[in-house]
Design brief:
The complex is a heterodimer.
Chain A: H1 22-28, H2 30-45, H3 52-77, H4 85-101, H5 106-131, H6 135-154, E1 159-160, H7 165-170, E2 173-174, E3 177-178, H8 179-197, H9 199-209, H10 211-216, H11 221-247, E4 249-250, H12 259-270, H13 281-300, H14 307-323
Antiparallel strand pairs in A: 1-4, 2-3
Helix pairs in contact in A: 2-13, 3-8, 3-9, 3-11, 3-12, 3-13, 4-5, 4-6, 4-11, 5-6, 5-11, 8-9, 9-11, 12-13, 12-14, 13-14
Chain B: H1 12-18, H2 20-35, H3 42-67, H4 75-89, H5 96-117, H6 123-142, E1 148-149, H7 158-161, E2 163-164, E3 167-168, H8 169-187, H9 189-199, H10 201-206, H11 211-236, E4 239-240, H12 248-258, H13 273-289, H14 298-320
Antiparallel strand pairs in B: 1-4, 2-3
Helix pairs in contact in B: 2-13, 3-8, 3-11, 3-12, 3-13, 4-5, 4-6, 4-11, 5-6, 5-11, 8-9, 9-11, 12-13
The chains are: A mainly alpha, B mainly alpha.
């Protein structure tokens, strides 16, 4: 983005000080404190807030935001941004639905959908690293073109998948646990592992901190960047396919619309720096839950839906402001 | 001959490179005029002028922001807010439906500027938050009916629909703002400091330029332009829904990028914005004239591919011309 290391005076310290001290503690954990405050206030004032129903709802609804935000964390850690995530979701859902209606079975059609989604990410990565175009522009293009392509694949009108095995899968539960949770938990675990233990994540981080230095130490920026965007796109594809399965219909023009905003907000709340660097996956997980919780609380209290937009805006600004580098 | 420091060397090849958007526009216009006789008519041109004036005004403000090295995603929400206010005040006394939306737009821009310069939040995040927040505000202001009807047929709707010798008033507003922006960017001290701040913020600060003030004004200009765009929009439609103008920020950014202004900041010419805006405006017009009917989504697909072609070209130029 616009903040390149040479031009921005705002980024003089690469690492935020994690020194002890009360103020620093509050700063570092301001969002956790806010989260706890939100829970406590709602436990007191919102009827039926502390119930398994709320938990169940939140966990199922947070699924797309969670997966997309996990992918977004990796991309942002590489110093980029991906605003094509919603379009990627739509592409994979459209391909899956198209294949499914051609009756080639659930698993092959889901496979095709995921592959098509990942391809969007590869395209992003190639354009960004090979042609050195800014990530926001590349993903803007893929967002435009991907949305159009999704509609070209599936047609302009929503396609219903009601009553198919595909839809049954989207509503399935194993011992009471929704299938979304069964996918989400391993996905989170895998991303935490990737971010903490793999060389791949170190390389992404290095590119995010200083891409020139990363190239000079011999990191292949081309493959690593493609890997980062492809991973993000794959997670989006899973989110898109599951979204189609849960709703039982695919509207290529609307599926995943504006999810990039929620995902970026989740990453920002999670504390991953937008000029690149360490990927804070658990922070993102927390951020995604917080973003979804705002929506849930607004719904449960019969507040006009639109106040949640304002609330999210305030949370986003507060989060970034509290966590910015000094 | 004076060499403009903002453009590549003044060779023939350099001229072609720097005038890429203009050449593309001319080619597009010539091909369309040859292929479709009814394209090259005053009626059609004033129609295009009417359509592009709104996104064009937004693109002017966006161009300033991008030249300063920032970005503003909140313009669509500001335009919606302005349209809502304009529709609400359209029956009021003269100028209220014009002054209020523009002033409110500039005020929201000032909030953007405050978040970015004082709270030091990245422009992308700050304006993203404002995009959400202002949109929420629009929904709340619109209330339960979710539609705010403007006064149709009055003087206010003349802004979008009236014209003087085939030149729509809205196009005149766009042209006037563009001329003002061009003058400011070329000859005013402020315009030069926008380029300086976008080129290298630290260096600009060391030279003694007031970087924060410059950025603040830039975001206020962008907000004000979005206000003008929303005002024209309100006069064009009979009623304003709160989800109006969604996605306009992308059109504005696309127009600015096509006009050759680099997102890195500090590189590009405001005057070329007219080319970017017109290219994006002419394409749907041409698609509509094709003998076979294309589905509506092809518009976005083609815009995306066009953007891709432009940035690929720019990246090739950047490689050859290491600046």
């Amino acid at each position: 983005m616009a903040d390149s290391p040479q031009t921005s005076p705002l980024r003089t310290s690469a690492n935020p000080a994690r020194a002890a001290g009360g103020v620093q503690f509050v700063k570092n954990y301001s969002m956790v404190l806010f989260f706890l405050l939100l829970i406590i206030l709602n436990a007191k004032f919102t009827p039926n807030f502390l119930s398994t129903g709320t938990l169940d709802n939140t966990l199922r609804q947070v699924f797309p935001i969670m997966l997309v935000a996990l992918g977004m964390t990796i991309v942002i850690s590489s110093g980029g941004i991906d605003i094509s995530v919603g379009a990627t979701m739509a592409v994979s859902a459209a391909v899956t639905a198209r294949m499914f209606t051609a009756e080639i079975g659930v698993i092959p059609s889901v496979g095709c959908g995921l592959a098509a989604g990942a391809l969007c990410g590869v395209l992003n990565g190639v354009l960004i690293s090979r042609f050195r175009i800014q990530p926001i522009i590349v993903t803007l293009i893929v967002m435009f073109a991907g949305r159009g392509a999704a509609q070209a694949i599936l047609g302009e009108f929503p396609v219903s998948l009601m009553g198919t095995s595909f839809e049954t899968f989207g509503r399935a539960r194993l011992a009471g646990v929704p299938v979304q949770v069964l996918i989400m938990v391993p996905a989170i675990a895998a991303m935490v592992f990737i971010a903490r233990k793999t060389v791949f994540a170190r390389r992404i981080e290095a590119i995010g901190e200083n891409s020139r230095a990363a190239r000079l130490v011999g990191i292949n920026i081309f493959t690593v960047t493609i890997g980062a965007y492809a991973l993000c796109a794959l997670l989006c594809a899973i989110a898109g396919v599951m979204d189609a399965a849960r709703g039982g219909r695919v509207d290529a023009g609307r599926l995943g619309m504006y999810i990039e905003l929620d995902a970026i907000a989740a990453v920002a709340i999670g504390g991953t720096c937008f000029s690149g660097g360490r990927a804070r996956v658990l922070g993102t997980v927390f951020g995604a839950v917080l973003v979804q919780l705002v929506t849930v609380i607004v719904n449960m209290n019969d507040i006009q839906q639109h106040y949640s937009l304002i609330l999210k805006a305030i949370v986003l600004i507060a989060a970034v402001w509290a966590q910015r580098d000094k | 001959m004076k060499v403009d420091p903002r453009s590549p060397k003044s060779t023939a090849a350099g001229w072609i490179r720097s005038q890429g958007p203009l050449i593309a526009l001319v080619v597009l216009l010539v091909v369309a005029s040859v292929r479709f006789p009814e394209f090259c008519t005053t009626g059609n041109f004033s129609n295009i002028g009417r359509q592009v004036s709104m996104s064009g005004v937004l693109a002017i403000g966006m161009a300033f922001v991008i030249l300063s090295g920032g970005i503003d995603l909140s313009v669509s929400s500001i335009a919606a807010l302005a349209a809502l206010l304009a529709a609400q005040y359209s029956g009021e006394f003269f100028l209220a439906p014009i002054v209020v939306p523009v002033a409110v737009g500039a005020a929201v821009g000032a909030v953007n500027g405050f978040l970015i310069t004082r709270m030091r939040i990245t422009p992308f995040i700050a304006t993203l938050a404002m995009m959400l927040g202002v949109r929420g505000l629009v929904f709340i202001l619109a209330g339960k009916e979710a539609v705010v009807a403007g006064v149709s047929g009055g003087w206010f709707s003349k802004i979008a629909w009236g014209s003087w010798t085939d030149v729509p008033y809205s196009t005149m507003i766009f042209a006037l703002l563009l001329a003002a922006a061009l003058a400011v960017s070329r000859y005013a001290g402020f315009g030069r400091s926008v380029y300086a701040v976008g080129g290298n913020e630290e260096a600009a600060a060391m030279m003694g330029l007031r970087v924060r003030r410059c950025k603040m004004i830039v975001y206020m200009i962008c907000g004000g332009c979005a206000g003008v765009g929303g005002m024209i929009l309100a006069s064009r439609v009979t009623s304003v829904r709160p989800n109006i103008a969604v996605g306009w920020e992308l059109d504005a950014i696309a127009a600015v990028v096509i006009s050759g202004i680099s997102l890195v900041g500090g590189i590009g010419r405001i005057g070329n914005v007219v080319c970017g805006v017109l290219i994006l405006g002419v394409i749907p017009n041409i698609i509509n004239r094709l003998p076979f009917s294309l589905p509506t989504y092809s518009n976005r697909l083609i815009t995306g591919l066009l953007l891709l072609a432009v940035v690929l070209l720019q990246s090739r130029i950047a490689k050859r011309d290491p600046r």
